Fold this sequence. Notes:
This protein is an all-alpha fold. The protein has helices at 6-15, 28-31, 36-49, 55-70, 82-93, 101-108, 112-123, 127-142, 149-155, 161-172, 176-191. It has three domains: 6-70, no CATH class; 82-130, no CATH class; 143-191, Arc Repressor Mutant, subunit A (Orthogonal Bundle), CATH 1.10.10.
Amino acid sequence: xxxxxxxxxxxLFAEADQPAGPQQLVPARSLWQNDPLLYRAFxxxxxxxxxxxxxxxxxxxxxxxxxxxxxxxxxxxQQQPDWVSRLQQQLRAHPAEPWPLAELAxxxxxxxxxxxxxxxxxxxxxPHAYLLDCRINAARQRLPDCSSLAQLASxxxxxxxxxxxxxxxxxxxxxxxxxxxxxSCAISCNTL
Length: 192
């Protein structure tokens, strides 16, 4: 069961330019009785909320889930907003930064709700998931010369080595150590 703070939801509706009163906030159980997509999204959110994932990722997924509930509020645009590519460049250039949603929304000049929904619609990822991908890509470049996984994890903004290893394996299908060994083997095979 998921209980969301009513004031938080009302604020989220307001950020989406959709005023909401308590009468519009209905139990989610009644929302997904005929909506398998919403139910699947709820199950994925639930698994994430009880995982050791970072708070920023949990917040972004919660906002994304709330967006499914609020669905259809943002008008479809034909052209990617300029701020999406600016944020992508910023996240790629500075992957070690924590980048809270409120800060990214401020840089983009939009609400957190609009940030998460629009960014995901154009990139396929929430801002935090995109940031994790940027960190993993930076790690892949640095791993061949890396002597300490813990230090690399810290330098790239991961909470700890365990979080780094988990995120890396989830995206690359091998651990950073295995990737490092594969890269070393590939380099030595190319020099023969």
